[in-house]
Amino acid sequence: MCEPLTLCHILGFKFKFYQEPNEETPKSLYHIAAALLHHNLIELEDLYVHLMPLDAAIVEEHKRDISEAKQIARKLVMVVLPSEKNEDKEKDKEKEEEKNEKPPDNQKLGLLEALLRIGDWHHAQSIMDQMPSFYATSHKAIPLYRRAGLPKGARGCVLHPLRNKRAPRPAETFEDLRRDTFSMLGYLGPHLSHDPILFAKIIRLGKGFMKELFVCSLQDTLLSCFLSIADQVLLPSISLMECNACMSEELWGLFKLFPYQHRYRLYGQWKNETYSSHPLLVKVKAQTVERAKYIMKRLTKENVKQSGRQIGKLSHSNPTILFDYMLSQIQWYDNLIVPVVDSLKYLTSLNYDVLAYCIIEALANPEKEKMKHDDTTISSWLQSLASLCGAVFRKYPIELAGLLQYVTNQLKAGKSFDLLILKEVVQKMAGIEITDEMTSEQLEAMTGGEQLKAEGGYFGQIRNTKKSSQRLKDVLLDHELALPLCLLMAQQRNGVVFLEGGEKHLKLVGHLYDQCHDTLVQFGGFLASNLSTEDYIKRVPSIDILCNQFHTPHDAAFFLSRPMYAHQILSKYDELKKAEKGNKQQQKVHKYVAACEQVMTPVHEAVVSLHPARVWDDLRPQFYATFWSLTMYDLAVPHSAYEREVNKLKVQIKAIEENPEIPLNKKKKEKERCTALQEKLQEEEKKQLEHVQRVLHRLKLEKDNWLLAKSTKNETITKFLQLCLFPRCIFSSIDAVYCARFVELVHQQKTPNFCTLLCYDRVFSAIIYTVASCTENESHRYGRFLCCMLETVTRWHSDRATYEKECVNYPGFLTIFRATGFDGGNKADQLDYENFRHVVHKWHYMLTKASVHCLETGDYTHIRNILIVLTKILPCYPKVLNLGQALECRVHKICLEEKDKRPDLYALAMGYSGRLKSQKVHMVPENEFHHKEQPARSATPASQQNGPGSTGKPATSTSKTDEGTSEDGDKSQGTTKPVNKANSAAAKVTTSNGNGALNRTQHDGKEKKEKKEKTPGSTPETKAENRREKQRDERAGKEERAAREGKEKTPKAEREKAKAEEKSSKDDKAKAGNGEPAEPSREREAIKESKSKEKGDRSAVAGSLKSPVPRSESAESERDHKRRKLDSHSSPSHSSSVKVSMA
């Protein structure tokens, strides 16, 4: 036989002959060339140069095809003018004419076909490698694997291997599959769409492999091969299939065996890269977008079913393109959310999974800003996507792991915007709402059991959340995301302020903090109500690990641990009941107390590490842990809420019976449902009642060991407020109510060393700093807390019998308390009813002063927060007419100033102003709110005014400054000084070391100057001499001062303001009722003389009551300076003060 090169030349000459236009190369020539190549008689490289067209021409043709496809795609998605349409038509005609002239055969493809027919894969592969990707298989003649359409009732058949021994052997193992078959599929690419049967076979092989994944030795290599085939072949092929839902479900059968990370990577490649790799895919993408636009333009609530079917049909082949467009529309038009969600019911499982990926990709889009341009609110597109997430994931069985992991990763990166998504998902899927705008009825319902919460605790009755809640719970447990999400949210609260909040607007920082906190409360509530006891205890570490190791804030750590303690106590209680069977109530209570001791003792030991050792000198760890571990469910049963919901169900049953339109079987079902619910609620109420009785008995046994009070009672109250009351009262609305009720409970239990009066005084007397440091939602909660505290005080204030029953003879209302071991020999007095009313008036005045101060600062946060707080406490404050008028005046001024500047403040102020006016009818003059004696009776001895058993002494002069008052506080501790002047009402609370709550006295202008010049640490002799000089000055100028006294009683800030706005100031004074008559100088002298006589006795008493902790003069001076700053507004209607001294 001749040499190979000669054979090549002869074959080349033959091929050259058929390269003219309209010539057709005979198949026999291709077959001969293929056979010679297969038997290695000629070399492919030698023959290849004789074949036409050239490789460069093939590449050019491929590029031209892609550009034409892109041009078609561009025309489909853009508006084309009529003139342009005519030009395009002419170009199309020219192209058709060119096509009529048949080009010469593609001889390279002809040879390739012949090689494949005889089974020479090696040479066929070499030819395909010279061409662009998928170029060869895109031509109909190439029989790599092709079956047109799917024959009806197609069945598998045995395929016999080619008789050619050099052809690839049939694959018998997964390794054989990897060696030959996968490379063939790679060349086939998207054109596998022509053969659905082969498509299904490949997928089923993949399923078989995934089942044996951990048995196979080459598992990683094979897994990557299957992923590559899915990326390069299966997904592009399904894009070219004509709406084949069966293939979509078949593909999901394989994909669901992959972790979501692998699936999402495949979807990302499919969406962002695959469609640009082939001309057919470019066209398909454009057609899908055009069709999606057509459907979305016509989608409404009325045609959801028809549009849904069209969306389903389109999504079977190209879900990524369709969902990308739909999500872009939803981000612009949030009213599309409801119809879009309803229209997605015709999707396949694969499409739902792709939708989850598309949502996450849209959320993570780096080109989109998550803040609006004003930098104060979250962008509307993010809010729309969050709403869509909640609705879609609740309604359809979509895997949540990817979305939850995305939120977790964002929190790890210190970004809290996306918590909005978690909030919406939990709200929709679990039915747990978070809102601070709860009505009192809803809040009451939230203190009951789970059934009462579901029925009466939320605005919307979200039913049928059992399945979706279970799905959410399973995902969190399977992917171990429950605790990490909780811890990250708890840490991120402070991160919002200190890490994220550097350059952000204060309003946005507050909003993000609230969102983070609310989502934590909502998510923690979901875990507590849905996780089993074992799951919860297994996942939540002990309190000391939470705080010290994970750096979780204490309030959040106890919030997460609280359900665990409740579960453990109930479990232990059930164990003890089973161990010793006794039905007596007393035995049950003792077992419950024993269960509590066993569970809580390790907690008491753990909390010691949370605070410095000196804290435990006053508060016992037992008291601290008890406060943080209980809830409103443990303290009281909301009987009225249970009764209200039961009555609603009875009305519902009656309405069902009377409705003739409801079918009988449906009537029966509804009645059974309502009756069962009614029984559940009644059973739940009974169960809670028994639980509350057990808890109260436990607290009664514990209370004697709660407070040690090694230092002063003031220090004890300070620690209680700082570590317990204030952190928890702003945690949630229910916690706000709990804090107020806990204080009342500690008082009712007659807890030793707990001064109820001082606690209330500290809460009401210094709200400025607390209000100023709150976020918007915290202000709602703080206002609710103050309202509950005021409710208790108002109940005692309004009825003498109630006060004597609930306060008299209670240790919390003793007016002398001494540090342990320091007995001054004075008898402890109870605060009588009239003096308590004076104290309450003083609290109302202090609230007014703080409110006016916040309103006058001009600061956005101060004004917004105080308006929110005032709105919340409106049922209980203001009750005094002149205080209400003062508030009304300031709020009216805010309305005028903020109308055009800050609309949100204007809306708040207008809302409060309107409600305040409606409350005016319930306000009373000051003399009705507390007893004010007439000037004629002002000389009555103090002992007669104060009732039997009183040790009262005359009140101090109105001219005392803060320093003088503080000095007298030391001198007169242990006494209750009754009202001795016509317009006196304020109460002053101090302690044995002089650290009292905010003190209030009237200030005279000249005397204020004199007192400021005095040294704070002056000796008693100097002070007495100064006082005598002052009395002489007063006698000399008494008439002038009496005439001027009314003017000087106005607050200092108002006096300064009067210089700039004289007219406005006069109006304010008139409205606030500031003009009080001057006191006769005769009475003033009598009081001062009696006071100077008893000066020596009081000094001796003060010496015996001195605190064991010495105070430096500089510290006292600094405290007095701060007090002078706070007391810039004096009471407009008080010229003396009742002093309630507590050591």
Automatic annotation (TrEMBL):
One of its GO terms (molecular function) is mRNA binding. Residues 940-959, 972-1000 have a biased composition (Polar residues). It holds the Pfam family THOC2_N. It is found in: Nucleus. Residues 311-386 form the THO complex subunitTHOC2 N-terminal domain. The keyword Nucleus applies. This is THO complex subunit 2. It comes from Sparus aurata. The gene is THOC2.
